[in-house]
Structure formats: C-alpha cells, structure tokens
Amino acid sequence: MTTAAAGGAETAPPADKRLPERSERSRSPRPRRSVTGTRKAVATVFLLPALVLLGALVVYPIVYSVYRSFFDQAGTGFAGLGNYKALFTDDTIRTAVKNNAIWVVFAPTVSTALGLIFAVLTERIRWGTAFKLIVFMPMAISMLAAGIIFRLVYDQAPERGVANAVWVGVHDTFAESAGYPNAHPLPVHPLEAGGGGSFVTKVPVRAGEPVSLPLVGVAPAKMPADAKPAKAAPTEPGKITGTAWLDFTKGGGGKPNVIDTQELGLRGLEVEAVRDGRTVASATAAADGTFTLPGSADGALLRLPASNFKEPYNGVDWLGPTLVTPGIIGSYVWMWAGFAMVLIAAGLAGLPRELLEAARVDGANEWQVFRRITVPMLAPVLAVVLVTLMINVLKIFDLVFIIAPGSSQDDANVLALQLYRSSFGTDADLGIGSAIAVLLLLLVIPVMIFNIRRIRKEGRR
Questions:
Q1: Residue pLDDT, tens place only, 294-326
Q2: Nearest CA to 114 among 337, 326, 325?
Q3: Among 110, 297, 328, 346, which is least packed, fewest CB within 10 Å?
C-alpha cells in the first residue's frame, strides 16, 4: 500500500504498518511437496507399477507360503502346526538346520576376517592392486561354475583332485611307504601265505646263502619311479642277504625265480626275520631290491608283513560325511573373501591417517594400532560385510547342491536345499516346503531389522 505525497511522489507506509500484512501472507497455506519438490499424488502414480510388481513377486508369495504351510501334502486338509512340528522332529530337516547354523557362524566370520587381513596387508605392498584383483576375481564366477570347480578340486583321486594331490604329496614326503597292494607270489616261488595278508619263506634261511623273494601282480606303471633293475645279492659270511623283485618281464619271456635284466627291484619292501613267532631282525629293500639281515636271522623264516601290501595313501575324503560341510564352506570363502576385502579396503581408505601416525609416534606397535584403532574405527564397515554375508549364507543353495555328491548330500544339507527337495522332489510335500520357506523368512527378518537400525543410526550421525 502506498500514499501520494505533495508533488506527486508516492511514499511507502511505515514499516510497522506493513508487518501485519506480511505475516498474514506468510500464514497462507501452500501445497505440500516432497523433498524433491514432487507432489505426493504424482509420486504415487509413478510408484504404483513398482508397488504392483512388488506385491505380485514378493508380498503375494510370502502370504501364500504362510497360508500353504498350514495344509497337508495334497493341500486339501488343514494340518495346523504339523508341518512346523516336522521341522524339528524330522532328522533330515534337523540336519539342515544344524548345518545352516554352522554356515551362519563360520562362513561370514572367516570371509570377513580374511577380507580384513587382505585389506590391511595390501596397503603395504607395491603390487597390492594386482593382489586385490586376483582375490576378487572369483566374484565374477557364478555359483554354478564355482561348484563345478570345487567338485573337481575335492575329487578323491589325486590325479584329478588338486586338494588330494597336495595332501598326498605332503604325506608321502614325511611318511613314504612302498605300497604294493596286489603283489603276491606264484606257486613256484619260495614264498607262501603266512596269515593276515603276509607271506613267509617256505624254508628257514641260512647265513651266507642269498635269498630270492620274487613277487608278481604289480603293474609296471605302478612301480616306484626310482626303482632300479634288480640284481643278485652278494654273499656275505655271517649275514643273510637277498633280493626282492618283480618277477615279470614286459612283453613276456624271462624265467620264474630268475632275475632278468628288465625286471625291477621292489624298493622299500620290508623284510622281517621271524623265529618262534617273534621278529628277530628286519631290513628294507634298496632300489635294486637287495637287502641284508644280521647273523641273528640265521635259521629264521623271512616274512613280508602285510603292511607291504596295503593300499597306498590316497588322501582325505573331502566330500565324505565328516568334511563335506567344511569343504563347501571353504569354496564359499574362496568366492566371497574378495567381496569383503574390497568393502573393507574402501573403509580403510577413509580412516584419518593422522590418528594412526599419532599412535605410532606415541609408541604403539603395528599390532596395537591394528587392534585398538583400525578395527574399532572399521566397526561399521565390518558390520555391513558381516550382516550381508549372514543374509547370503542363510539362502545358500547352489554350492551345496553341486559340490556334495549324492552319498553325502544328506550330511551337507541346508534349509534352502531341503526346501527344494521337499517342494520339487520325487515325494514332494508343498506343506513342508512352505513351512521351511517361512522358517527361512523368520531367520532373515531379525538380521534385516538389525541392518536397518544400524543404517538409520549411521544416518543420524
């Protein structure tokens, strides 16, 4: 509002008279808008297709699974809580619950711990980026491909399974044995069965008279790589000498009980001198099959103990009932340790370096800096990784289904696999399957609530 003054000029009213008008204008209602300035009605229209899709793909399956879990196998009879009771009384499902608990405790913890170690150590090496790339590469592989890879890694045969090839190599380095499982004498040989899988000479041995211990039944390809052509043992007065060899010539030929030029010595074969049921002396055959016993063996029988003919060490049954679950968890850690490492390394890059340097200046060693400063400051990131992996392992299915053989699948069973077997197996029971699905949902919800609360708490800081 303006007033006309003398001379035609307009003057504004005093400020105290304009205040009520301005305050009334400020109290006038305005259309409410969202944070982005969009009206709620418009936002709802755009969100409606997503909400319909979410309801069709998430809400409806959850509601129907809860409903179906109260009915029997045919879906026509009301079963009440019978399906849920079966979850804790059926041995197969109880094994799945137990294995899921093992997965939730160990798989996320080990993956997060390895990721933390890798992230901290790679900060101090020049080729840290290349190492991170190698560790993260398994994340680019699908669960199906990783399962096939580790099914081969854990193969029982050392010539195919990498794990057993390494294990057998280490074992043989410290506890090497001859191992001629199919070796045996022929009727024309001077040996006979001695009981318990052993063989003994038919007559006592005498000092100064070389002894022949021929055997057959060993494929030339299975002979030790360092076995040498057999040779006749020299005569030594007052001692028992002899030769143990494979009495077989490639391509035929040769004579029984005679050492031919192409026949190999049975390296590592144990020979014992036995008198009155007691071992008085023992020796081990050299690479050419020769051995020497002291004079105390004079007049005794020579025995080849059963330990010579046991199957060679074939490694560990990684996919057997005992180790199948730890073995599959190992494959999961191989895949997801890189994921944990990348997230933790990103959090580590944001730490205030001056605080770490100040601790070092004050006399803290690297372990104290890591334990009392680095880990506490990375706690939010570690919580994100740990919770994410916990949710992931609750739904683990692919690795168990592919890696565990049929003979061990019950021992490696988890809830997601049992859900599949109960719902789509030969004797499908959708009531049990729906109850397992509801149980999985109830197990995931507390973890999700914890994660949401933690995110909100971080957002308020």
A1: 988 899 999 999 888 887 777 888 999 999 999
A2: 337
A3: 346
